[in-house]
Each structure stands twice: as C-alpha cells, then as structure tokens.
C-alpha cells in the first residue's frame, strides 16, 4: 500500500498521512497538489511532500480524493527550502504554504468565488459541472467551496473551479482587490478638435502676444505630426529648458494642448531602443572581478558599495551574464519600486521575459506569474520576499538589494523569517550564486564577510569619483542656550537651507516620526490619550485632525477638553514629521515644501506624483520619514538636514545605533550624487555620541568594529543567537501565568544565563491582546541546534497543558 505525507494550508505541526488509492498511482509525484478532506468534511488542497509505504499504526489514514496537477507544481528545491524554513524558523509548513501560494492555487472550503464583472459566458463550451457553478453564481453573488459540494461531486470541484478561473469567468473573492498600477507618466498632445475647428494660422494668431507659447505649441505639433504613434512626454518638452511650466499651463488653460496620463507599463513598446549598459569603471570592474572569482569558488558575496557607487551597474552585468548562459535570475527588493533605474533598464531589454511578484498583485496576476515561471517564460523575476517561493527552475543568480532593510523580516505576518538570510539556503538548494548588496550592510552580514563566510567586495568610491557628502554636527544645546534657534531649527541650519534655495538646489529634511505630535497631554492632571486596544499612546495627526494608534490603526478624534478632569489645558508634546513640515513651510513661505511619509503617500499615485515633481525640480524642500532614504537617485539635492537626530538613538532596541547609522548614511547618500558637493547637517544634543562621531568620520571599518564590540560586550548577535517567544491572550493574568509556566519549563532544560524573562512585552497590550515575552540568548555553532531541540521540547510540554491551548504563541528566530 502506498501512502503520502501531505502539506496542508493549516497552522499545524508537520505533514499529514493519507492513503494513495491505486488508481491514482500511475502519475503521482512529490510536489503535486492533491485534494483531501481533513477533520470531518472540510476539503483542502494539499501538496505531496513524501511518498512511502509505512502504514501508520495508530490510525487509519483517509484516501486522497484526487490529484490536481499533471506534473509537480512545486520543484524539489522548493520543498527542501520549505522544510528548512520550517525547521530553522520554528514555524509550520502550513504557514509557509499559505504565504507562498496564490489563493486560487490552494482552494479550500472557505474560499469564496464570484463571477467576474461583465463576463459573457459561452455556455455551449462548458461541461455540466461548470454550467451548474456559473448558474449558481448568477443567482448568488458569492459561493464558497463547501457550498459547491451540494451540486458538484467532490472530486470534480477543483477541476471545475480551475477551469472557470482559467476561462476568466470567475474569480476568487478578495478583500484586498485594489489593483496595483504602474507609475503614471504625463504626456502632452495638441487638441485635435481645436485644430479642426480653427485653422492653424488662426491659432497662431491668437498666440501672437505670447511668442513662447506659440513656439511651444508648434514644437508639440511638430513632434505629433512627425510620429503620430509616439506619445510626447511632458518632461521631454520641459527638460529642454526652453519652455516653462507656466507657459504650458496657459496652453492647457486655453484648451490648445491637452495633458494626459498613461501607465508606464502600457508604453513599453514605444520606449524602444535599448542602450548598452555604460562600461564599468575601473573600480567597478575590479569589484566585478572579485565577484566572478568568488562565484568560481562557489562562494556567496556581500557587495558593500557606498551610496552612488554604481552597484546597479554591477548587478546588471551579472544578471545579463546569467541570462546569456541560460540561467534564470531572482532580484529581491525590500519593497517594489518601479522608479528604480534597474527596473526600467531590465524592462526595456527583457520585456515579457521580466516578471514582477509582490504583495500588491491581485491573485489572478500572481497565478499568471506562477504559470510563466513554471513554463520557464520568465528569465528575470523582480520581487519582494514572497518571490522566494516561486517554482523556479534553473535559477542561477539571486541578488538581494538593500540587504540591510528590515522589510525583509517583518514582524507583522507569519511565518516569521528573514528573507535575506533565507536566500543563502535557497541559493544552496538551487546551486545558484548569491549577491547581497548594500551601502550599509547589516552588522550580521558584515561579520559573516569578515569571517570569510561570505566574500567581502568593497566599492569605496562613488561613480565618477564624486566626493561623498560631508557631515557636520550642530550642537543644538549650545544654539538653544544662545537663543539662536527658531522652533526645532538652529539659525545656522536655516541659513544653510536659505543658501541652497538661492542656488536653486533641493534640500531633504529627515525626521523619522509620523504624525504631528507624539502625545496630547493634559497640563492639569497629566492625562495622556492611550489607544483603547493597545498599551500605546495615540499620535496626533494635525493634517487629518485625528489621533491614530500606529500599532493597530485605531483612530479617534482629538479631545477638546481632558476626558478625565475636563481641563481645556491640553498640550502637544513630542515632534512628528508633520510639525517639522509645518515649521519649514512657515520659515520658507515662498518655497515649495512637500512631505513624504506613509500618511501623505496613501492616496493613489501620490508617491509617483511627488517623485516626478522632485525629479522635475518643482519641489524645493522635501520633508520626510525614512521613506526619503530609499533608493532615490536625484541629481539636484545637495543638502540633507536631520534636525532631531537624537530621536533615532533613544529607542529600546539593540539595533537602534545600527539603524540610525544606516538611515543617516542612506539619506545622506541622496546628496550631491553628481556634483560631489553633498552636505549633511545633523542637529543633536549629544555631538560627542560615538555614533555621530563615527558617522562624521565616515570610516565604515571603524563603525562596524564599534558595533561588533558593543554586540560582543552585551551578548547580542552575531555573537549569540536570539529567539524571542511571545505569548498573547485577551486575559492578562492568564497570559502571565502561562508565561511563568513556559519560563519554568525552559529553565528545566536550558542554563539560566540563556533565559531572560518572562516579562511583559515593551508593548504590553496590542489589539486587545496582552503580551508577555521570553528572550533566549543561545550559543552559536553546534550547541545551537541541540539547545533549539530543547526549546522545541519545552514548547511541546507547554502545548500539553489544555488550559493554555488558547494562548497564542509567536516565535521569532534571529529577529
Ligand atoms: N559605469 C557607469 N557608467 C555610467 N554611469 C554610471 C556607472 N556606474 C554608475 N553610474 C551612475 O551613477 C549613479 C549612481 O549609481 P547607482 O544608483 O547604481 O548607485 P548605488 O550604488 O545603487 O547607490 P545607492 O546605494 O545610493 O542606491 C547612477 O545615476 C548611475 O547611472
Ligand atoms: Zn492600538
């Protein structure tokens, strides 16, 4: 008899044993999807992880209902990778499965289906089951898979649903249906109707008094006549420097010229010619040579290239080499950004052989990418962390850009894993090469490189021998004492910004706190406004005039009087980016000041629009949170200012200094990319702080040495391994008791010095759940896996207590 171990999309440990009916044995392989029922009536799509002959002794396994694929949907390398993640990050295979697969590939009882809007169904070509389902959906808008069992035999359900999805008649109902759109670009055209109504000489006559407008109108008309198929980019007209925005605006107001927007991806065909990549500079060539050598020895690479050193050019060379040798490439980004230079270039060169995969795609789009990857139609995939799980074949190169970015290991969605670290294993399973790249590598990667576990390749010079920005520290205490400040800005800093404005240069101001004020406090009784779901004060957002909890998203109106003592004496405390924006706008009333943070960028295309505005020089000062530090490559920014730099350091987190260094260096990297005149002004109460001093010196070896010494002294990674266990429950005393119990079990097995806690988490309540945590500091090396097994054993003992089964457990490995 034959049995199979099946992975189910459930948050349960391990795989599940099913019997393989003889009639299915003909084509039954690991990596195929099967339909099974689990715990009673519910059906699920599972994945075959193992085939064997071991009849289980303690129970009678159920039979697999049907096979859904003709060939494995998941390659062996991915199954190995899933097993590794599950073991290393102590999570369940089912959690990985849920994250990895688009919903329509893993239909289950609770999946809801609906008709696609405005479909015309060709009933003649449907089989009986398909017809029933369509008819049912016409009567009721939503039907879930369980309900379908009433009129379609179980074994045919998935086949029927799949075929109707393929025909695009039906779709999975998704709450997050907001479709991702590519960047919109502004285009111009002459208003044909005006031209038809009035003769050209008439129009020109009407523009007699404004020769510039006349000239511009003719320029647009000329381009349009020359090549009617080719849209005229607005920037193309304005960039020549001949015409101004106000002239264009008059033409648009007179209805002679129309401005319209097109999505970037719709235009691929027009954008035509692929330029050769510029030749690598001497330094870049040297770096590439070192990478080639490392790859020859089968080693992975950490590419540490200062900001604007041209890491992109090196990636491009390696990517194109891989593709030429018939291999496929995965390019991983922390977040998808279509404005990136590399994306634009690859898009031009590889067109349809380039794929994108990220959280913002709809389910249908995701399935489409799966299909194309499986058919080997995509050579280069650009994606975020979920792209690790696509069914690649022949993967030859993985590049992880901005490898230090914490978006690779979010703590909000399970399973918890670090995508950057996981690529090291993925590359192993595929025997692919790996480049981790950053201007500010994570301390862990740097350490691995220095230990020769990764090949360290350093690019210390900006492209074109452009100078790196200079750092200057402003002692804010002194400025304050001598009354040389206005609000959060020293007169010195104000003066520097003024100079930039006069020189027509752009300035960036970084303040990494959302909102307007951190708290609203009652002067009379000291009341502060806490979120009703969380143990967190609510942040005041002046622009939207509301209080927001940054942890659970809860909103409330701003209190007019103190809810406790009814005093009207309410005060704003703590400075958020909105306030910095307001101050700057007041200090420079004649300048265009824009704000870039998650709150202001929520509207559709807000980011794209602001990006273009900055690119076209319409913005003078950009105020923003860490968002402004990411990958922007503008050429007219010279001054970067950080008015309240201390706020980055005093955070309870052993990575606070590392993060501050990365953020300051990244944002400073936006300055002087062409001119080499970049300048960074840091206002601080502690100019002597070692991190500021080291940043000023700009010697990366020294900085990392400092970080590593601190980590060693206080026993933090990379010198120990951290595992954080967080327990959650709606009742505080229950979660407290359970945490004490787990602590005592762990202490039975592990040495005392490895265990910190249990204690209340820094955020004691989140979304109505009380949280307690236990931090484990475990030794590296062989001992680590031994101890991890003991941790597992402790967790199993914990799970045996019935009273604690309602406690939610979260395990963060290497967080
Ligand atoms: N060999 C080259 N020839 C021509 N231009 C180059 C070359 N290398 C880099 N550049 C240009 O230099 C600029 C900086 O390069 P790039 O954006 O790749 O830097 P980076 O190392 O990724 O920096 P960051 O980490 O700040 O994003 C870009 O505008 C790029 O086009
Ligand atoms: Zn909250």
TrEMBL record:
It catalyses: ATP + H2O = ADP + phosphate + H(+); Couples ATP hydrolysis with the unwinding of duplex DNA by translocating in the 3'-5' direction. Residues 535-711 form the Helicase C-terminal domain. PROSITE patterns: HELICASE_ATP_BIND_1, HELICASE_CTER. The keyword Isomerase applies. It comes from the Bacteria. Its cofactor is Zn(2+). PANTHER family: PRIMOSOMAL PROTEIN N. This is Replication restart protein PriA. It is an enzyme of class 5 (isomerase). It comes from Kaistella yananensis. Residues 292-459 form the Helicase ATP-binding domain. Residues 270-297 form a coiled coil. The gene is priA. Belongs to the helicase family. PriA subfamily. Zn(2+) 2 binds at residues 531, 534, 549, 552. HAMAP family: PriA. The lineage of its organism: Bacteria, Pseudomonadati, Bacteroidota, Flavobacteriia, Flavobacteriales.
């Amino acid at each position: 008899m034959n049995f199979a171990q099946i992975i189910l999309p459930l948050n349960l440990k391990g795989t599940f044993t099913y019997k393989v009916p003889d009639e299915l044995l003909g084509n039954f392989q690991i990596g195929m999807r099967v339909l099974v029922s689990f715990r009673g009536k519910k059906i699920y799509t599972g994945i075959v992880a193992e085939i064997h002959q071991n009849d289980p002794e303690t129970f009678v396994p159920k039979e697999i209902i049907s096979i859904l694929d003709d060939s494995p949907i998941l390659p062996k390398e991915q199954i190995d990778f899933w097993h590794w993640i599950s073991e290393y990050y102590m999570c369940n295979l089912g959690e990985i499965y849920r994250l990895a697969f688009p919903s329509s590939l893993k239909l289950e009882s609770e999946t809801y289906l609906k008709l696609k809007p405005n479909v015309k169904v060709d009933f003649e070509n449907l089989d009986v089951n398909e017809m029933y389902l369509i008819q049912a959906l016409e009567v009721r808008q939503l039907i879930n898979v369980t309900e379908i069992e009433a009129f379609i035999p179980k074994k045919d359900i998935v086949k029927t649903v799949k075929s109707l999805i393929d025909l695009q008649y039906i779709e999975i109902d998704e709450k997050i249906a907001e479709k991702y759109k590519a960047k919109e670009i502004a285009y111009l055209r002459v208003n044909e109707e005006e031209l038809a109504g009035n003769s050209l000489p008439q129009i020109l006559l009407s523009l007699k008094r404004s020769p510039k407008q006349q000239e511009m109108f003719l320029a647009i008309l000329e381009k349009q006549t020359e090549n009617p198929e080719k849209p005229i980019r607005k920037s193309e007209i304005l960039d020549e420097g001949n015409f101004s925005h106000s002239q264009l605006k008059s033409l648009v107001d007179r209805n002679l010229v129309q401005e319209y927007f097109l999505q970037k991806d719709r235009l691929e065909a027009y954008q035509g010619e692929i330029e050769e990549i510029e030749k690598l500079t001497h330094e870049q060539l040297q770096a590439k040579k070192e990478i080639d050598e490392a790859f020859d020895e089968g080693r992975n690479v950490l590419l540490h290239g200062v900001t604007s050193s041209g890491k992109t050019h090196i990636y491009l060379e390696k990517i194109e080499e891989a593709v030429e040798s018939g291999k496929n490439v995965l390019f991983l980004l922390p977040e998808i950004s279509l404005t990136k230079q590399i994306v634009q270039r690859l898009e031009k060169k590889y067109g349809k052989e380039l794929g994108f995969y990220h959280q913002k795609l709809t389910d249908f789009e995701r399935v489409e990418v799966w299909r194309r990857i499986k058919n080997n139609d995509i050579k280069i995939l650009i994606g975020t962390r979920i792209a690790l799980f696509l069914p690649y074949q022949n993967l030859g190169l993985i590049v992880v850009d901005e490898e230090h970015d914490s978006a690779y290991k979010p703590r909000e969605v399970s399973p918890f894993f670090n995508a950057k670290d996981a690529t090291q294993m993925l590359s192993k399973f595929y025997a692919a090469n790996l480049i981790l790249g950053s201007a500010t590598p994570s301390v862990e990667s740097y350490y691995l490189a220095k230990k020769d576990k990764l090949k360290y390749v350093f690019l210390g010079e900006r492209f074109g021998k452009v100078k790196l920005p200079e750092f200057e520290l402003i002692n804010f205490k002194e400025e304050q004492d001598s009354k040389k400040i206005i609000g959060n800005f020293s007169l010195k800093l104000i003066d520097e910004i003024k100079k930039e404005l006069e020189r027509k240069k752009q300035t960036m101001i970084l303040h990494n706190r959302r909102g307007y004020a951190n708290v609203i406090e009652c002067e009379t009784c000291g009341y502060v406004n806490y979120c009703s779901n969380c143990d967190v004060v609510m942040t005041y957002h002046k622009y939207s005039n509301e209080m927001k909890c940054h942890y659970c998203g809860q909103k409330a109106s701003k209190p007019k009087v103190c809810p406790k003592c009814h005093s009207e004496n309410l005060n704003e405390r703590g400075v958020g980016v909105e306030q910095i924006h307001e101050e700057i706008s007041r200090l420079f009333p004649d300048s265009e000041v824009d704000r870039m943070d998650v709150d202001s960028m929520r509207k559709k295309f807000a980011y794209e629009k602001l990006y273009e505005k900055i690119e076209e020089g319409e913005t003078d000062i950009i105020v923003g949170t860490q968002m402004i530090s990411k990958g922007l490559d503008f050429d007219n920014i010279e001054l970067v200012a950080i008015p309240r730099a201390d706020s980055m350091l005093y955070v309870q987190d052993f990575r606070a200094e590392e993060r501050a260094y990365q953020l300051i260096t990244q944002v400073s990297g936006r300055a002087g990319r062409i001119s080499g005149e970049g300048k960074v002004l840091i206002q601080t109460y502690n100019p002597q702080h070692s991190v500021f001093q080291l940043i000023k010196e700009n010697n990366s070896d020294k900085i990392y040495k400092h970080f590593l010494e601190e980590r060693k002294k206080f026993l933090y990674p990379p010198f120990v391994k951290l595992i954080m266990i967080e327990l959650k429950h709606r009742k505080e005393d229950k979660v407290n008791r359970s945490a004490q119990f787990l602590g005592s079990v762990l202490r039975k097995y592990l040495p005392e010095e490895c265990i910190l806690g249990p204690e209340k988490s820094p955020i004691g309540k989140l979304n109505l759940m009380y949280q307690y945590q236990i931090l484990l500091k475990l030794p590296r090396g062989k001992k680590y896996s031994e101890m991890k097994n003991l941790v597992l054993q402790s967790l199993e003992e914990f799970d045996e207590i019935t009273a604690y089964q309602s406690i939610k457990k979260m395990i963060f490995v290497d967080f």
